[in-house]
Specification:
With 462 residues, this protein is an alpha+beta fold. α7 (288-307) runs antiparallel to α8 and α9 packs across α12. The strands form 3 sheets. It has a 6-stranded mixed sheet. A 3-stranded antiparallel sheet has the order 3-6-9. It is built from 12 helices and 11 strands. β10 and β11 form a beta hairpin. Helix content is 51%, strand content 17%. The radius of gyration is 32 Å and the shape is elongated. The chain folds into 2 domains: 42-205, no CATH class; 209-444, no CATH class. The N and C termini lie far apart (119 Å).
Length: 462
């Protein structure tokens, strides 16, 4: 017979054992999802070219150090020391193995790397190792279809996930480098305890998609390029005016005004088209800062000309000369894409077409306002105010591009993000100006006669 003391001991023992099992289980099963701290994932961004694929690896330092055994967590700066850099290259080369769909291995080149602080929405801030790599298939192999064997971190950190995305793919219409398309994820297959290769299928691609994307990119570039728009518009602003004695003193007549506006637009188009073609097709390596500073200086000259005539009647020549600098700046966009010769020619055509279409649209929208504004008594005030604001922006850009960042340049750059507002304002101004002009013609028509437009000089107090 079991005594009361033995019975009590047994009950207490079982109760303690039950608590030891149930409490941890309850804590695990009932824990909030936020209680388990999620770890940052890796990202592999692919830029697809005609004969190779560039990869940008974004690797969380803590997981990378744990998986590779290479200590990077104590490095405070952005530069990876030479010893660790060599070890990182060897480690990555051993864990990145792209291959053709038939099994032939690609070459892998590991390039520049640096450390930085970053954050992901779900994980918060963390340190990241960024590495550039170039994946080159065998001769004749298809860069758009391949097998991506990759287990850089996940072979040791089994909960790790790698997102593979495409950032640039000309043949598929991705050319601006801003958006990405997810190709797939690389993670451990827990059923087989293996890391399966990712089958990359980017589709056939086509030159037509590349052309259409470049037309759109060219249009967006001129529309959001505040400096290019300001240069053209500030030269057009005094085009309907006549200059006498170093001052804007009246009007030149509607036909001459239209001829000037058309000449300035065509000359600017010719200048930047020639420079764009020569720089892009010649693959000239030109530093960007002198070109950008030249553009800022051209806007400043245009603003001064709108206040006091510097080259009256020769605006088209000036537009053509300064347009050369603007064309060189346009070419930087194409140079960053590393296109083949055939893709470059197609891109040049599409990019320039997009620029010209949007430029023509903006000039057509601004034309009625320019002609009507010249006839108003407030014309000098509007012209001087617009020229002064443009001059301040240009001066801010010039100082910034010579190495001194400033809030004026930042504010001027931000104006390029309000393209929809700009188009709405220009459209409303064009409609209003056209209606005002037609009303003025009706009022000025003689009794019993046809409509005769009046083109009277407006007083200039500048």
């Amino acid at each position: 017979m079991t005594g009361p003391r033995n019975w009590l001991t047994t009950v207490l023992t079982r109760l303690v054992a039950g608590i030891a099992i149930v409490v941890p289980a309850a804590l695990l099963l009932g824990a909030s999802p936020a209680a388990a701290h999620p770890m940052p994932h890796s990202v592999v961004q692919l830029d697809v070219y005609r004969s190779s694929v560039s990869a940008r690896l974004e690797l969380p330092v803590s997981d990378f150090s744990r998986a590779s055994g290479i200590d990077l967590e104590d490095i405070t700066g952005k530069t990876v020391p030479a010893a660790q850099r060599k070890a990182v290259r060897a480690y990555l080369a051993a864990h990145i193995h792209p291959a053709t769909t038939g099994g032939r291995a690609w070459q892998v080149g590991i390039g520049a790397m640096h450390l930085s602080a970053t954050r992901q929405t779900s994980t918060g801030p963390y340190r990241e190792l960024t590495v550039a790599a170039v994946l080159t298939p065998p001769a004749g192999a298809d860069v758009r279809h391949f097998t991506f064997h990759y287990d850089v971190i996940v072979h040791q950190v089994v909960t790790h996930v790698t997102l593979v995305t495409v950032r640039q793919d000309w043949a598929n219409g991705q050319v601006d480098g801003k958006g990405t398309t997810q190709v797939g994820t690389i993670e451990l297959d827990i059923r087989h305890m293996k890391v399966p290769a990712l089958k990359v299928d980017l589709g056939p691609g086509s030159a037509w998609r590349g052309l259409v994307a470049m037309v759109e990119l060219g249009g967006n570039h001129i529309l959001t390029g505040t400096d290019h728009l300001l240069f053209l518009l500030i030269l057009l602003l005094p085009a309907p005016l006549a200059a006498t004695g170093g001052r804007w003193t009246g009007l030149v007549g509607p036909r001459k005004a239209l001829a000037r506006i058309g000449g300035i637009t065509l000359a600017f188009t010719a200048g930047h088209s020639v420079a764009l073609a020569a720089t892009a097709l010649g693959r000239l390596q030109i530093p960007s800062w002198p070109v950008e500073a030249f553009i800022a200086a051209s806007i400043l000259v245009g603003a001064i000309h709108a206040i006091r005539p510097l080259f009256p009647g020769r605006e088209a020549v000036v537009a053509g000369v300064f347009g050369l600098g603007h064309g060189m700046a346009f070419s930087f966009v194409l140079a960053e894409m590393h296109l083949s010769t055939g893709q470059l020619v197609t891109s040049l055509l599409g990019f320039n077409l997009g620029i010209e279409l949007v430029q023509l649209l903006l000039v057509c929208l601004a034309l009625p306002s320019l002609l009507v504004l010249a006839r108003l008594r407030v014309q000098p005030v509007i012209r001087l105010t617009g020229a002064a604001l443009t001059g301040v922006a240009a001066l801010g850009w010039l100082v910034d591009r010579l190495g001194l960042p400033n809030p004026v340049a930042r504010a001027a750059d931000s104006a390029g993000s309000h393209t929809t507002l700009l188009l709405v304002i220009l459209t409303l101004a064009a409609v209003t100006s056209t209606a005002w002009s037609l009303t003025a013609r009706v009022r000025s028509a003689p009794q019993g006669g046809g409509l005769r437009p009046r083109w009277r000089a407006a007083p200039d107090r500048s």
